[in-house]
Amino acid sequence: MLLSIDPIAFALGPVKVHWYGIILGSAALIGLLLLIQEGKRFKIHPDFFMDLLLIGAPSAIVGARIYYVAFRWQDYKDNLSEAFKIWHGGIAIHGALIGAVIAAFIYVRRKGYPFWRIADLAAPGLITGQMIGRWGNFMNQEAYGGPVSETFLRNTLHLPDFIVNQMYIDGAYHHPTFLYESVWNLAGLILLLVLRRQRFMRAGELFLTYFIWYSIGRFFVEGLRTDSLAFTGPDWVVGFLRMLWSPMSILFEPGHMDYGNVRIAQLIGVVIILAAIVLVVIRRRLGYANERYLDPIVSSKQTDAAPLNSAPAGTSMREPRSGANEQPGGQ
């Protein structure tokens, strides 16, 4: 008999602690540690990043819930109180990113730092958090793909028993899409760690590379899922997305959709990829990305600027360019 993993890790009296929360909390902390470690190279105090997490994490949760409810409004319009019951499930990563980025932008600018420089430092931590966080979906048996054979999971993917057994849901085995995305994010983490030591990387480009990499992987994995947020769109949008996903159809059938014909995560992913590429080109041409990733990070606030006048370890110290401290972080 197949036994699925209990999503509840332990109970403290009437309070049940779920693996999902433990994994997401661990993901956030590990991402924070990566950020703090990199921030030390730029002489930025760890308290700055801890405050950033304390502001960004709740903003991400609120954004994730608003995003989900907005695209599933038909489920909540007649019962508004249910929209606030996040413990009943229903969050979306794109909404979390929107909420976190808005909060981080406000906080970082208030501290006098260029937003793009801090965003670059945060990129590896973000993708690490997503890589680990997907295992929370595994524990809950959610965010999975369409049905597959047990042979595919055991002999083709060579997955261990605990994953194969957990993917047996409602009488059938399913694509472990959580695992596909987690492995993709691991590869993305390695890419970002390599790129951030390259002299050609300009301010903001590591952050935008994170968005491009994540969106490419999410686009193809999303097509396998059976729980996608969706809407009914025009035929040309449907045809365009199907064309882009067609290489996957050589090997796999797309996941069933309960409603709509356009997966929102796929459409948003394509928009993000195009927007990120355009931003890289425009920011370089207009001179908004003259600073490089390895350049010192200087706050425009006098109280914050003092400890940041040293160059990061392994780089040469040089005079800042004229106007560098006034560089707009949101360009």
TrEMBL record:
GO terms for molecular function: phosphatidylglycerol-prolipoprotein diacylglyceryl transferase activity. Pathway: Protein modification; lipoprotein biosynthesis (diacylglyceryl transfer). The keyword Membrane applies. Its main location: membrane. Residues 302-331 are annotated as: Disordered. Keywords: Cell membrane, Membrane, Transferase, Transmembrane, Transmembrane helix. The keyword Cell membrane applies. It is an enzyme of class 2 (transferase). It comes from the Bacteria. It is found in: Cell membrane. InterPro entries: Lgt. It is a multi-pass membrane protein. The chain crosses the membrane at residues 17-36, 48-67, 87-108, 207-224, 264-282. A 1,2-diacyl-sn-glycero-3-phospho-(1'-sn-glycerol) binds at R134. Its EC number is 2.5.1.145. Belongs to the Lgt family. Catalyzes the transfer of the diacylglyceryl group from phosphatidylglycerol to the sulfhydryl group of the N-terminal cysteine of a prolipoprotein, the first step in the formation of mature lipoproteins. This is Phosphatidylglycerol--prolipoprotein diacylglyceryl transferase. It comes from Ferviditalea candida. The lineage of its organism: Bacteria, Bacillati, Bacillota, Bacilli, Bacillales.
